[in-house]
Amino acid sequence: MIKYHPAPDIEEQAKQIAEKLNMPHDLSRIKFVRSKGSQAKRTLARCHATPRVMQTALDMKAHYIIEVISENYDKLSLVERQKIIIHELLHVPKSMKGGFRHHDFVCEKNIDKLHKMLRG
Ligand SMILES: [Zn+2]
């Protein structure tokens, strides 16, 4: 069964990345978890959002959860891990209302461009 653990190390890394790249997101509404025991063999990370029905019923703003799949993510190089964090952050729209940006925008070209900025 899949198990989820808080990932403060990834949160810290994401904060630094978002700051350096001037990403406008409200990081207090983006949470980071590490999962273990996923059946996903090739998935490195994924981005979840609270469904609108829950936002309405619980009277809360949308929150996003970036999940990294430990077995696949943690063995990658620093550069690859940085690119994955950028990738997942790009899925979160500036409006942060619960939707996602898709892979027409979250693409290698945009990720590489931002990663170059990150490395200065
Ligand atoms: Zn993606």
Can you characterise this structure?
With 120 residues, the chain is an alpha+beta fold. It has one domain: Zincin-like. Helices cover 40% and strands 18% of the residues. It has helices spanning 8-20, 52-57, 70-73, 78-90, 108-119, and strands at 3-6, 30-36, 45-49, 64-69. A four-stranded mixed beta sheet has the order 1-2-4-3. Helix 1 (8-20) packs across helix 4 and helix 4 packs across helix 5 (108-119). The radius of gyration is 14 Å and the shape is globular. The termini are far apart. The model has no long low-confidence stretch (mean pLDDT 96). Residues 87, 91, 103, 106 line the site of zinc ion (ZN).
Features:
globular, 4-stranded mixed beta sheet, Zincin-like, binds zinc ion
In N-to-C order, the SSE pattern is EHEEHEHHH
Judging from the principal axes of the Cα atoms, what is the shape? globular
Top-tier CATH class:
Alpha Beta
Which parts are unreliable, with pLDDT below 50 for 5 consecutive residues or more?
none
Please describe the biggest sheet, giving its number of strands, its sense, and whether it closes into a barrel: 4 strands, mixed
Write down the Rg. 14 Å
CATH architecture: 2-Layer Sandwich
**Total helix count?**
5
Side-by-side strand order of the widest sheet: 1-2-4-3
β-strand percent reads: 15-25%
Helix proportion range: 40-55%
The total count of strands amounts to 4
How many domains comprise the coordinates?
1
Mean pLDDT: 96
Cα separation of the termini? 41 Å
Helix-strand category: alpha+beta
Task: List the ions, cofactors and other small molecules found in this model.
Answer: zinc ion
Oligomeric state, counting identical vs distinct chains: single chain
